């Protein structure tokens, strides 16, 4: 900017910085809101798990529904010892308490 006069380039840069700043702020707000929603869901799930029998053994399908993942993901978690499980008759069974522990470690 020479002598107090803005060039077209200065005006465009200022406008772009303003738009980018607003978009970043909007994105940050969206991320914050999503984080709050996830934390709220985890709290609800943990509350529901506490009310249920913590020793109840769930199938892979039931665990997947609680964790909101695919059944294959639960099986992989078991194979990789990322979540506590037992094998009964060749099938994985997960205690509700193991699911709660997993959620608490990964929140």
Structural commentary:
The chain is mainly α. Helix content is 66%, strand content 9%. The chain has helices at 8-51, 60-67, 71-79, 96-105; strands spanning 57-58, 86-88, 91-95. A 3-stranded antiparallel sheet has the order 1-3-2. Helix 1 (8-51) packs antiparallel against helix 4. The N and C termini lie far apart (50 Å). The model has no long low-confidence stretch (mean pLDDT 86).
The percent range for helix content is 55-70%
Annotation field: number of helices: 4
Share in β-strands: 5-15%
Structural class: mainly alpha
With strands numbered from the N-terminus, the spatial order across the biggest sheet is 1-3-2
Whole-angstrom Rg: 24 Å
Indicate the mean pLDDT.
86
The profile of the biggest β sheet is: 3 strands, antiparallel
Give the terminus-to-terminus CA distance: 50 Å
Shape: elongated
Q: What string gives the helices and strands in order? A: HEHHEEH
Number of strands: 3
Low-confidence stretches: none
Classify the oligomer: single chain
